[in-house]
Amino acid sequence: MDVRTTFLILACLLVGCGEVTGAGSGPAAPTATAVIVAPRDQIPAALRDYMDRLTQTAGAGYIRRVDRITVRPATWSDLPGSAGAANVDPAAAIWIIAATGEFYPTFGLMSVPPSACELWALDAKTYEVRGSVLGALSDCARYFGDLPAPTSAPITCGDEDSGYRVFDHYRFSPTTTGPLAIVTSRDDSWTAPTAIPGDYLYRFGHGSVFEVFCRPNHTATVPEPNDAAMLKALGSPRVTPAGGMAQIWLKNAHALSASAGSDGVVTVKATVRRGFEIVSYDWHALAPQGGYVKFRFVDASGVDVIPYAVANGP
Fold this sequence. Notes:
By secondary structure, the protein is α+β, with helices and mostly antiparallel strands. The chain is built from 6 helices and 15 strands. Strand 13, helix 6 and strand 14 form a beta-alpha-beta unit. The radius of gyration is 22 Å and the shape is elongated.
């Protein structure tokens, strides 16, 4: 699962909230209620009206709070995550409204972790909303010149989002039957951090907090550039994964052996053990067709030691 905050490109937008700063405004310290306002005559009337409506709905919908907001002329290529969107010309002119605050969208039955930044894309001529992106403060920084990183936040782990339960009875991809060769690297002195570093929240937001800090396991079938940032946020455990191989990160557990059935379920014999561990294995040898694979971590009696984890890869 990607640790990067998930960008949601929407075909149409539910009402958000905010006020306006001119494109040339410098940064100012945000507060829980303050919104920065710039000369309104710098902004087309239709945009002003839209942003006024957003301001009036602040706190009533999925946008709980706005600290600051601005608007700039742009192109689709300036909107993060839009490169693969269908029927989008990267050079097409749009307006981008950028806002910082607290955004708690819900899509279908799965809630989405709160975001500190939202970007709206509006048609350059009609000012109709064409899409939006949720992200971390770093995604809004370019629109305000600078945004300070938040302070470190305590880690609070409630129940896992119910969306993960879709895998309880999922039909997983075929796997190569038999023992799975694993290589482990451990740091027995590692202890779990008690706070989320501010620089991590600045770059990634809350979207991956549960996966990184709360789940006892994490899978990465393809090494990601953000892996180093995740490990640093976890206190830089002294572990070295096998190069180019898929990984399972374990907190306070130790993998002894692994064996795969043909149904996409891998049984990992494991014990509870203090420390941090990276288990490396050959993803393509395990799942030649790619897709989703389920890892169960059980003791000698077959009882789950920690919750299962799901890996997804090419």
